[in-house]
Specification:
17% strand; 3-stranded antiparallel β-sheet; disordered N terminus; disordered C terminus; 547 residues; alpha+beta; 18 helices
């Protein structure tokens, strides 16, 4: 049971006997006492030759449940009421929330266990965080009753709660789970051969595993993949708000799979998205509960080329490339002639333009009802950097395969490069326009999007202009944790991200710091700047004075 941290710490440190001798033991006891104020039930000590602690008879329980999908309001029915149902088969229990949500399955391991049915509602519970976010902040909670068991130093108890099938729940007993988890982690680290078994790199390998998933609810996709000898894999864009998004998947594929030794799954992901190419586009996202994607994106498809390139560098898998090449050629052709949402090449200069009323097509995609916060309609800087990179990569692949379309792709790339350097350079500011030929004209907003003109495998910006862009980005956008999405001083700059949904989305890409572009730029600084500038600039990039 809990004891005062001061005597516990003193006895652990001094070794004194008598009343507090049960606190003598490993140095971890001192750390635990200092950190938590007490030591833990079940620790063994020599004085009484048994585990410390007392049984838990008579301690009253209290618990309740709530079911919410990631974008739900606090109530899952129109009038705010709950429609839960409790089902029991032997000592197995399921709480069914109704609707499309899966049941919560409960099983208790322990001595003298029992479940008491005692339904009770907790009405109008307030959620402070939801209130600060401007959402519905009051909802009802419910409990079907409570579990009871006897805990003791030699009598552990474990409550398993899962939405998985009973077969999965029954596969391992609680005492087997730690070893099973250690084996799972060991396999992940073994796959990432060049990563140490401990430290930050190993933790990143283990964390990456959480984002690689088998998409639920797309049975036809799984059946089609298995028929072709594949498995379905995708990347969840962000717990717990998002499922799989094309842009996020292609940007993160290298770090999540190739750097962690999971090349096979990277191939699964690329071939899965290749199947979904429609009219020259890969899906922007797959809405929850649907089988078909939404295609309102101008950059996800171009990031697809980047991801394939990094995959080929890591694996040399020409079979997958040949399987995808017809799709890639159709993507370029659709972009050349024009596809949905105003995405298409301007025949006047070979640059890629995009934009459709009511749609947010770049990664700066905040939207509140009908308000697109940063529409960026026109020729966006990072879209054209990605377009040039995709054309160059495709030209290389087609040349290696002996395809005559390689000449056409190469010529289109050279034309885009020349037009980019003529149109996007903002002489007055010494950096790149964010959008040219936009609805209000050319947009000189200083944003991090311009760094892609330098950091991709085929940088579109003339090398003579790299240093000025680096300096502006470092001075105006760089912080210790990433790049601002908009430089201070702009009329739309928002220094803080807080408030209700509208206020937060209004600030989302108008100053919020993002870390996504910092890594590629630092790598480009170290690799490709002239030697006389390299280390000076790399150090400056690493240790910016701004916050």
């Amino acid at each position: 049971m809990p004891r005062c941290s001061r005597p516990a710490a003193r006895i652990s440190a001094s070794g004194r006997e008598a009343y507090y001798s049960d606190h003598r033991g490993a140095p971890q006891e001192f750390i635990s006492a200092a950190k938590y104020g007490y030591l833990f039930q079940g620790q063994r000590y020599a004085w009484q030759k048994q585990r410390r602690g007392t049984r838990t008879d008579g301690i009253p329980p209290a618990a309740f449940v709530d079911f919410l999908e990631n974008h739900d309001q606090l109530a899952n029915s129109g009038d705010g009421s709950r429609a839960y149902a409790l089902q029991a088969v032997g000592d197995r229990f399921e709480i069914a929330p109704g609707g499309d949500l899966p049941p919560l399955r409960l099983f208790l391991y322990g001595q003298d266990k029992a479940f008491t049915v005692l339904p009770e509602a907790f009405e109008r519970v307030a959620y402070a965080l939801e209130q600060r976010r401007g959402h519905e902040c009051c909802g009802d909670l419910w409990t079907p009753g409570y579990f009871r068991l006897t805990l003791g130093p030699d009598a552990p108890g474990t409550l398993v709660a899962s939405t998985g099938p009973w077969e999965t729940i029954d596969a391992l007993r609680p005492e087997e789970l730690p070893q099973a988890e250690r084996r799972r982690r060991g396999r992940l680290l073994e796959s990432a051969r060049h990563v140490p078994s401990t430290g930050m790199a190993s933790e990143l390998v283990l964390a990456a595993d959480q984002f690689i998933i088998m998409p639920a609810g797309r049975a036809e996709e799984a059946a089609r993949a298995r028929a072709a000898g594949d498995e379905v894999r995708t990347v969840v864009a962000g717990y717990h708000w998002f499922t799989d998004w094309g842009r996020d998947t292609m940007i993160s594929l290298e770090g999540l799979t190739l750097c962690t030794g999971r090349q096979r799954e990277a191939g699964y992901i690329l071939r899965t998205f290749g199947h979904y190419v429609r009219d020259g586009l890969i899906p922007n996202m797959f809405p929850e509960g649907t089988k078909e994607g939404l295609y309102h994106t101008a950059d996800a498809t171009l990031w697809f080329f980047h991801a394939i390139h990094r995959y080929l560098q890591a694996t040399g898998d020409r079979s997958t490339l040949r399987q995808l090449l017809p799709k890639l050629k159709s993507i370029i052709e659709h972009h050349r002639t024009g596809t949905h949402f105003g995405i298409g090449v301007d025949p006047a200069d070979g640059l890629l333009r995009q934009g459709a009323e009511g749609y947010q097509l770049t990664w700066m995609d905040a939207k509140v009802e009908d308000w697109v916060v940063t529409p960026r309609r026109g020729k966006a800087v990072e879209i054209n950097a990605l377009w040039f990179n995709a054309l160059c990569l495709l030209a290389d692949w087609l040349r290696e395969e002996g395809d005559p379309m390689a000449v056409q792709a190469g010529e289109a790339a050279e034309r885009a490069r020349a037009a980019f350097n003529a149109r996007f350079w903002y002489e007055e500011g010494g950096y790149l326009y964010d959008v040219v030929d936009g609805e209000p004209g050319d947009d000189p907003s200083c944003r991090p999007n311009q760094v892609l003109a330098i950091s991709l495998d085929y940088p579109v910006l003339d090398r003579s202009r790299w240093l000025p862009v680096f300096e502006v980005v470092r001075e105006r956008l760089l912080t210790p944790v990433g790049l601002r999405s908009l430089a201070p001083g702009h009329r739309d700059y928002k220094p803080q991200y807080y408030g209700d949904l509208r206020a937060r989305d209004a600030a989302y890409h108008q100053g919020t710091v993002l870390g996504v572009a910092r890594g590629p730029v630092r790598r480009r600084v170290a690799q490709d700047l002239p030697r006389r500038h390299r280390w000076k600039r790399a150090a400056a990039w690493k240790a910016s004075p701004h916050s």
